[in-house]
Design a protein that fits this description.
By secondary structure, the chain is α+β, with helices and mostly antiparallel strands. It has ten helices and nine strands. The protein has helices at about 5-25, 60-70, 110-125, 135-150, 155-165, 215-225, 230-245, 255-280, 290-300, 305-310, and strands at about 30-35, 40-45, 50, 85, 90-95, 180, 190-195, 200-205, 210. It has a five-stranded antiparallel beta sheet with strand order 1-2-3-5-4, with helices on one face. Strands 6-9 form a two-stranded antiparallel ribbon. A two-stranded antiparallel ribbon has the order 7-8. Helix 6 packs antiparallel against helix 7 (about 230-245), helix 6 packs across helix 8 (about 255-280) and helix 8 packs across helix 9. The longest helix is centred in the last third of the chain and has 26 residues, at about 255-280. The radius of gyration is 20 Å and the shape is globular.
């Protein structure tokens, strides 16, 4: 079911077509809706992509994030124009199309490239005035949607696990460290090949970009590994590449988990909350992957309070 009204989708597609034709007079005119979610609508026309940002996007904050992507073309895919367009009350930006990670070929997943890009992003000085990374806010919204979804047996362990997190990870207090430039929502869907022939991988999606706790950017693969969803060898590749590139989120040697624990538990709770809310809305049972993250939340709820507080520091 589409989340965006049909008139808005038609207007977005038409404006994307105009942007594509401005770039090339030989446009093949292939068009598609790549994503249609409440937090973002993405439409492609040939080699041009338009994104309608979340309805509550702050124009000044988005402008700062777009300007940063323009200045870091070796890390972030730069927009075609750093100035958003207002369309039907939404802010819209235009981007060159880059080939995404193939979801049907997990063995070819670019874990090393993702880790190296993150390390380079984390080592880049943050420009003055950049907003905070929005990871904890998104996690809190996922849990809020779970509470609103209605009763479900799996909601209880997810909410118990959420309650064990320190306030900053629940977006209820300031983050403890906010000087590092962070992506805010790292997963393999946030990587594309540069439009140049045989171009490098680049990070996309600037909506959550900002300063904050860099461990948050490593937390989703860490959580997947802890839940048994990411093979140990892939986690090892990712972590080693991040350390080799001088990433500051974890120590260069030794156990990374004291640095990753809180963020990984927060991403586990966020993922489980989304899964349960979707299952309730669809009136279906949890699938195997969804049940695995709920089970992980059940285990998380037994973490001793003093240990959780120690890792939160």
């Amino acid at each position: 079911m589409n989340s965006a009204p049909a008139p808005f989708l038609r207007a977005l597609a038409a404006r994307t077509r105009v942007a594509a034709h401005e770039r090339s007079s030989a446009c093949p005119c292939g068009a598609a809706t790549l994503a249609d979610r409440p937090d973002g609508v993405v439409v492609r026309h040939a080699d041009t992509v338009a994104k309608a940002h979340p309805p509550d996007s702050d124009p000044a904050e988005l402008a700062g994030r777009l300007a940063l992507a323009t200045r870091l073309p070796a890390i972030l895919l730069p927009p075609l124009d750093p100035t958003p367009l207002a369309l039907h009350g939404r802010l819209v930006t235009f981007w060159p199309y880059g080939a995404p990670v193939d979801p049907d070929d997990p063995d070819a997943a670019p874990w090393e490239a993702a880790a190296t890009l993150l390390a380079r992003l984390h080592r880049t000085p943050a420009p003055p005035g950049l907003p905070l990374m929005r990871g904890p806010v998104k996690a809190a919204r996922a849990v809020a949607r779970l509470r609103e979804a209605g009763p479900h047996p799996a909601a209880t362990p997810v909410l118990r696990a959420w309650a064990t997190l320190p306030p900053w990870a629940r977006a209820e207090a300031p983050m403890p460290h906010t000087g590092t430039l962070c992506h805010g929502d790292l997963h393999l869907g946030q990587l594309v090949r540069s439009p140049a022939p045989d171009g490098p991988w680049l990070l996309i999606d600037v909506d959550d970009l900002g300063t904050g706790v860099p461990a948050w950017d490593l937390a989703r693969p860490a959580a997947w590994y802890a839940c048994g969803l990411l093979p140990p060898e892939d986690w090892t590749r990712f972590l080693a590449a991040y350390r080799d590139a001088g990433g500051p989120a974890v120590p260069a040697e030794g156990d990374p988990w004291p640095a990753l624990d809180v963020a990984a538990r927060a991403l586990t709770a966020q993922t489980a909350a989304r899964a349960v809310a979707k299952a309730v809305a669809a009136g279906r049972a949890l699938d195997e992957v969804e049940q695995s993250v709920v089970d992980a939340c059940d285990r998380m709820a037994t973490v001793p309070a003093q240990l959780a507080q120690e890792y939160a520091k």
